[in-house]
Structure formats: structure tokens, C-alpha cells
Amino acid sequence: MDDFVFQNTTKIIFGRGTEAKVGEEARQFGTRALLHYGGGSVKRSGLFDRVAASLKAAGVSFVELGGVAPNPRLSLVHEGIALCRREKVGIVIAIGGGSAIDSAKAIALGVPYQGEVWDFFAGTAEPKEALPVATVLTIPAAGSESSTASVITNEDGMLKRGFNSPIIYPRFSILNPELAFTLPKQQVANGVADIMSHLFERYFTNSRPVELTDRLIEATLRTVIDAAPRVLARADDYDAWAELMWSGTIAHNNLLNTGRVGDWGSHDLEHELSAAYDIAHGAGLAVVFPAWMKYVHKHDVARFAQVASRVWGVDSAFMDPERAALTGIERLEGFWQYLGLKVRLSGLGIGPERIPEMADKLSSKGTKTVGNFVKVGKAEAEAIYQLAL
Amino acid sequence: MDDFVFQNTTKIIFGRGTEAKVGEEARQFGTRALLHYGGGSVKRSGLFDRVAASLKAAGVSFVELGGVAPNPRLSLVHEGIALCRREKVGIVIAIGGGSAIDSAKAIALGVPYQGEVWDFFAGTAEPKEALPVATVLTIPAAGSESSTASVITNEDGMLKRGFNSPIIYPRFSILNPELAFTLPKQQVANGVADIMSHLFERYFTNSRPVELTDRLIEATLRTVIDAAPRVLARADDYDAWAELMWSGTIAHNNLLNTGRVGDWGSHDLEHELSAAYDIAHGAGLAVVFPAWMKYVHKHDVARFAQVASRVWGVDSAFMDPERAALTGIERLEGFWQYLGLKVRLSGLGIGPERIPEMADKLSSKGTKTVGNFVKVGKAEAEAIYQLAL
């Protein structure tokens, strides 16, 4: 087990109707909020009005900024920063999924900073402070409701970059599984791929031994595998949504990577894909991750055999680890297809044309390679994208 | 899944030599500390001197108070409160296991309170504030290094009572598995029983469905079962100690009871036992828990069959759940005996004489019964103690 420091300060308020508590919680951080959200669904569903009523009752006034798109853009972040400064906002509250939350975190970073907020994402500056962020989660997927991460796309060059710091842990996050009942099925499936990918990124590590966290990750994977088909079969299955929503948070709240270094190469490979084609992050991961697994599995057959055995019940792992490893990857592909996900680029209507361009952008990052379990440079990235065709 | 609020703010600093960081961490909370510990082992091992050097280097002066005994006493807490007030201490740092930490938490509660600190344990007052607490953990067992709990024994009537509040979450806890290398084998085994009992207390619940947390608890149990025999076989097995130490924290940091109500009756049954006979908490739990399980298993045979199957590999659970449930309890007894624990009162030299007295004290608490999974009153308590003979 690697040495580590772990502290996750986000307060989770979980259960039916918990959006009614946003006012009393927000009041502890300020009397003026920015409500930040995506399309109009939070208005149509009545959620926005319930949040607004709770804030008003607690004496918190607010301004609002909608329009966050999947792969949230830097330009809207700039707009939010200006709005917060003008309106003297004390807390940024995201209502939505990972995109709204990531955008809110970027706004919170930018408000007290005199320079260009993209500096933090480009890695050329380190923030000293940020406005408090809070969330009302509507999509179990990104895990951003209790994470140190924000991922933003700079339209200038369509650069998609992530930033990590404890200063953007949300102060509190409202998790009401009922809010997910109205999600489109495709978005649900994308979210499941995102959650499972967060678990796999942590699972594939060269740190050892990492027995407790291996088992905790496997436990969370098995829960997601059990719950996901149930929410797709019956959209108002509260119990299954509750398991899925809490799993989505646990998958990304940094507990499951204590004492180990995750890989994260597939996330970088996917970021190039979604930046190039503007596809949803989860949809891209469902294509990239199996290809990455096939490409790297020989690096640690035992680890792939372990997850095949413990998560997918592949019982050939003792006598034939290589076959078990590959069978495990096939089970994953089969499960994701069963959920309605495409597991090949061709299924997303994407051909080989821009593979060199994506591999080039990936390897032009500061580090030249991505991933920790296996280092992926330009040649490896091209091979993985080819395997995904 | 029940509605819940979860927030655990303790900063965990985990790894080799991490006691060297106590100074820089403590400095954030004050410039004068109380170092609180048990017997002389922390002095003999050199740990006390390393902690003292780290504090000095960071500009934190300190006073010290040793002498914490297992089942920590109220009289020493009083002494600590007076010392902290006199010396204007800003942070209480426990060096040791659960007893030192629980005692430190009680001192921290008492310093800013004008009344008698026992009020909080007796449930007749609610604290508004507490001094910051920090820990340097030497014994993986109680989980107090990242918990809201403190258990203190009032010598006046030998009343052992627990208190819970987020205000006593340690601000930071130093977890260096090397510090456990010198523990006596019996203390290690007691600690394992304590950790596993914290997991079982959470596992046996009437809340449902609780699938994610079931699986996370099972994952932690399997890790402990794998690691415990290894640290007993080789005292300086860092890897196994790391798994056990981090499992001990996870077992009790409140994550694994999110969305569920644990039982905790066995803890109350054990508190009467250790108050009456002054035996170690873990040693008492190893006797009480199997008896409790046998007494209550018919309340939810499926749950007992599930843990037998998933944790102990009992494969008869599908066709004969009752037999699987009982087999699982036997496996637990066998495992604890293998670690050198006694699983009957007779093994501890305890006969039936004081059973009525213990049952009487148990049921004289405010609630009349203890436990949530199954309510245990005086008659049930007597029956469970009898089963433990």
C-alpha cells in the first residue's frame, strides 16, 4: 500500500426530498448564490423552483446562469465568473450532473483569481482559494458531487483538460435519487459507463498490495452491475437508483484510491475523442475502455483475472488466467451492450480518419504520455483507438 | 436505503514515519498541546520522543498526561480537563489506541464545558463545542481515530457509557502501520475482534435494501480475515498491517453505515461484561457476538446466510439458508479461536454468577432495551449471556 493522505470534507445529504434542505445548508456559506445549470429540464421538472423556494426561505438570494452543455465550455465559465463578481455571489450551487458541477467549480476557482482561470487547467498556475461550491445532483455519473476534480473544454483548440484540488470539494451535496427518475435511458447508460470507468481507472494500478481497496472497488462494481439494469427496466425504482447514485459518489470520492495510483489513461484517451466529436463522456468511455483493456492486459494478467473472477464470476481464472482476463473484458462489453451502449467507434459513426490527430493531441500534453498502469504515448494511443474501431 | 447525512472530516495521514508530520498538522490548531497516552510503551518505543520532536520543530509546546487504562476512566478525564485549562492547551493529541483516543475526546469535550463532562455520556446534556482532537494511532482496533464516538467508564458504579458527536471527529489522525509491530499477540487478536465487531454491528440491520454497504462491509471483513493471521504470524509484516489498520478505520468511520441502522446490542452487552470484569473490549466481543448471533439469527436467516456465503464461502446458502447461517457463525468462532481468542465466558474464567446483575444494569439504561436489529431487554440479555457460557 502506498503512503497517502485522505480527507474528503463534502457533506452528503441523501434521500427523498432533500433538495428542500439546500437553503439552510447554503446559508452557512453566504447570503447570495449563483444557481448554475444546464438545459431547461431542471426548470420543467420543478426542481429549480423547489431549490429557489428553499433558498428564499433561508434568506439566501440568488442569480442564475443556465446553458451548461455536456463537455462544459470555458466561455460559459468566464460568463459565470463575471456574473459572480458583479453580483457579489458567496456560493456557487450547481443543479445538474457532472457538467454543471464541473462548470460551477471552474467559476468558483475563477472568481477570486486575478488571472485567466484556464491557467489552472493548463497547469501554469495553482489556485490559492475558491468560492464555496455546492451541488444538487440529478445524474449519477461523474462523481463530481464529492470530488476534487473539474474538467473543462477550451473552445480555442477544443482542448479538454482536468484540474484537481481539495479546495473545490463541494461543501455539501444534495443526493435525491428521485431526481434521476426522468433521465433519458441513453444518459443513464452513459452514466453507468462513467461510474464503472472511475472504478476501473482506480483498479488498474501497479501499487501493491492493495487488498482492501481492490475489494471495495469490486464491491462497488458488483453493486452497479446489479442496480443499472433495474433502473433501465423501471425508471422510478427508487431503491435501485439509491444504490446507483451512492455508488457513483463512492466511485469517485478518493476513498477507493487511497494507497494506490490509478491509471487514468482511458480518461485522457476519451477526452480527445469527446473533444474531437463532441460525444458524451460516458459514451466515449464505453468504447475506449475495452480497447484499452485489450491492449494492456498482458501487463498484469493476474489483476485482469482477479476482476474477471471476483466481479464477473469467471471461474477459469485459477487454471487459465489469460483466458479469464479476456473473458472478463468480453463480459464487460456484453454488459455495456445490454445497457444500450456502443462499445466500438463504428457504433458511434466514427471512423479511423482522425485517429492520428487525436493521438497527436494526446501526446502533446506536458507529459508526452498518459496513464500510470501502462504509459500510453502517441503510438500506443493510435493502436488503442484502432482496437476500438 | 434509509435517508442519511454523511460527512467525515478527519484527515488521514497514512504511511511509514508519518508521526514526523504531527507538528506541522497540529500547528494549524494551536501552539500548545496535551499529549495523552496510556502506559509507558510509547515512551519505551521512542514514539513519544519522535512526536515531541516534531511538535517542537513546528513551534508547538506541550504538556503530557499518561496513564490511560483499557476501559478509560472518568477520573483521568477530569485530571486532563483541569490540566488543559491550567495550561491553556489548544489541541489534545492522543498517542495510542482506542482508550487513549476516547479519553482524549472526553477531555476535549470537557474543557470548554462549565458542567460535569459525564453529563454528555449520561445523555443529560449536549455539548456545543470541543477542543480539537488529533491522534497518533498505535493499535488498529477501536476505529476511534476517525469516529464520532468516545466510550468512558465512570468508576462511581462502574458505568461504561458511549457518546457520539461530529464535534469529536479527530482533526487529523496519523496512521503508521509500523507502530503496531510491537503489539502483544493477544492485543492484536482483541483488536481484530473489535474491528470485525464494528463491521458486524453495521451489517445486522433491518434497513433495506442496503446492497452497496452490505458489499462494502463484506469486502472489509474479507480483508481483515486475510490480513489478521499474517500479522500474527509475522509481527513486522508491513503490508498486512497496512491492510488491517486501514480496514480498522474504514470499519468505524461511518461510511459503512450510510443508509442503514446498525444493531449495536452486542457492544452494549459487552460494555456490561467489561465493566463487571474489567476485561478488554475485543476479548469480550469475541465471546458476546457469537452468542448474540445464535440468539437472533432466526430474525433474518437470509442475512445470516448471505454473510456466510459471501464472507465465509459457505455454499449451502441457496438450498439450506438456516444451516448456512449457523455454519457462518461457526466459521467466525473457528476463525477467532485460530487467532487465539476465547469465544466462551468460561474461557475467560467467567461463570454465570453475575449474569443477572449485568442484564439488570443493561436494561436499566434509559431505553430499557439495547440493539436495533433485535431489541434485547433483560430476559434476552440473560439468555445471550447464558449462551456465551
Describe what this molecule looks like in 3D.
The structure is a homodimer of 389-residue chains. Chain A is of the alpha/beta class. Chain A has helices at residues 22-26, 41-44, 47-57, 74-87, 98-110, 118-122, 185-203, 211-233, 238-250, 265-277, 281-296, 301-312, 321-338, 355-363, 378-387, and strands at 4-14, 32-37, 61-65, 91-96, 133-137, 149-154, 159-164, 172-175. Chain A has two domains: 11-179, Rossmann fold; 185-387, Dehydroquinate synthase-like - alpha domain (Dehydroquinate synthase-like, alpha domain), CATH 1.20.1090. Chain A has 15 helices and eight strands. Chain A has a six-stranded parallel β-sheet, sandwiched between helices. The first copy, chain A, has a two-stranded antiparallel sheet with strand order 6-7. In chain A, a hairpin with a 4-residue loop joins strand 6 (149-154) and strand 7. Chain A starts with a strand and ends with a helix. The mean pLDDT of chain A is 96.
How would a crystallographer describe the biggest sheet of chain A?
A: 6 strands, parallel
User: Going by CATH, what is the homologous superfamily of the largest domain in chain A?
Assistant: Dehydroquinate synthase-like - alpha domain
The secondary-structure class of chain A comes to: alpha/beta
Q: What is the mean predicted local confidence, pLDDT of chain A?
A: 96
What is the third-level CATH name, the topology of the largest domain in chain A? Dehydroquinate synthase-like, alpha domain
Biggest chain pair interface? A-B, 38 and 38 residues
- Proportion in helices of chain A: 40-55%
Radius of gyration of chain A: 20 Å
What fraction of the residues of chain A are assigned to beta strands by DSSP?
A: 5-15%
Terminal-residue CA separation of chain A: 37 Å
How many helices of chain A? The count is 15
Report the CATH C-level class of the largest domain in chain A.
Answer: Mainly Alpha
Q: From the coordinates shown, what is the CATH architecture of the largest domain in chain A?
A: Up-down Bundle
